[in-house]
Amino acid sequence: FFFFFQAEDGIRDPLWSRGLGDVYKRQVSTQSTWDLMIAHHKKSEDMASLEVMPAGHFLFASESVGEGHPDKLCDQLSDAVLDACLTQDIDAKVACEAAAKSQLVMAFGEITLKGKINFEQVLRKTIQEVGFDSKEKGLDWEKCSVLLNIEEQQSEIATAVHVGKKQEELCAGDQGHMFGYATDEWDKETLFPISHYFASRICQKLAEARKNKEIPWLRPDCKSQVTMEYLREGAIIKPLRVFNVLVSTQHDKGVTQEEIKKIVIEKIIKAVIPANFLDEKTVYYVNPSGSFQVGGPAADAGLTGRKIIVDTYGGWAPHGGGAFSGKDPSKVDRSAAYYCRYVAKSLVAAGLCHRAQVQVSYAIGIADPLSIFIDSLGTVKAGLTDYDLLHIVLNNFDFRPGSMIDELKLRRPIYRKTASFGHFGRMDPDFTWEYPKKDLKLQILTLISNLSLIH
């Protein structure tokens, strides 16, 4: 494999280069920044050929994981607990983590709510719904051990954030910075990166085919990865084709790898990816490690919050580092990330730019954000600037926690289903952040009350 990158300021060594045998090379290129020069095409099971990509073309890969992946299982456990709490008390304060290994599942954190909940029952039901019903599959929902260590929210945090405050006065539950992203690179509805859209939908399709028995030998654990070939023309990027697709899926005993590959390609990959993005050069990797019978927590330990790029944009946007699952909307790690997506998508949907990246930052105990940053990545509408976009955002959106919660209706028990197949890029009616704000006020403000946000 050879991967070479060329920087604007001259010749750079490859990020890494490993040739067939002991061949190592240095590549000089005149292509633009980040253009991928050498691509790997799989021609047979035994050898690879190298081919130079045309100028302006580049590859980008995004991965996803299924609901039976041990980390994703834990995300769902955390959000199932959150939904149970919000069902009983819409003002519940929840910060719940989960961990799983073999036949042990643990939930721990801080929860304050009115009433009581049988958390063990919530956890076992979630494990069952994911599909772990036997030790052979990786976890048995009936026989596994469940440990709980849950306490109330720390009083100092409660006082700083919400106690004695009106809704509009609610403060950020922690410091941090959050990001949102949108792109019209391939459609006008999801406004979501196509590489991650395909990767997420492949895992979702695997779950559907397993649960409706279309493919009866599938087991819950799976992963996918889609590499797209893009064309860059100035600041505009356009997806051209699927370069390769990788799927690893857990399966029953007695199924041949040949059968797995054939059925996954025909019934999963080609059912998800439109034919116009697939061609004779597209390469399919299905279970490249061979047998994959042992999965879930039996194969790897799981933990809430370890799939934050899978949860968001598949690598296309920065991430502040704060996970979503198990956190009620007073935690800006979640609510502000959703709101940033809402803002970015609204800008792109309004035709103000082709791509938008939004960052916001907070301090615990303060309602107003410390900063807001808007970047169109060079795609802002002619006649406008990113500075103009910031003015438009400040004139149309309120980033205070209480306002974000109200506008997006985030006190509902909707979070379990966000915890698998992505929090963004899905037009679910409950995902209010996916529906752009209409009729934006486009006048540019002449007076900003909080100049610290733009200087």
Task: Report on the architecture of this protein.
With 455 residues, the chain is α+β, with helices and mostly antiparallel strands. The chain is 25% helix and 24% strand. It is built from 9 helices and 17 strands. The protein has helices spanning 70-88, 119-130, 155-161, 194-211, 257-272, 308-311, 332-349, 386-396, 401-408, and strands spanning 2-3, 16-17, 38-42, 48-52, 57-65, 93-101, 104-112, 133-134, 139-140, 145-151, 176-183, 218-233, 236-251, 283-286, 302-303, 355-362, 371-375. A 4-stranded mixed beta sheet has the order 5-12-13-14. α1 crosses α2, α4 packs across α5 and α7 (332-349) packs across α9. It starts with a strand and ends in a 47-residue tail after the last helix. Mean pLDDT is 89; it is low at 1-50 and 446-452.
Q: What general outline do the C-alpha atoms trace?
A: flat
Largest sheet: 4 strands, mixed
Secondary-structure element sequence? Answer: EEEEEHEEHEEEHEHEEHEEHHEEHH
Query: What share of residues are in beta strands?
Result: 15-25%
Low-confidence stretches: 1-50, 446-452
The strand count comes to 17
Largest beta sheet: strand ordering:
5-12-13-14
For the residues shown, what is the average pLDDT? 89
Alpha-beta content class: alpha+beta
Helicity level: 10-25%
Rg measurement, Å: 23 Å
- Our measurement of the CA-to-CA distance between the termini, rounded to an integer number of angstroms, reads 45 Å
Count, helices:
9
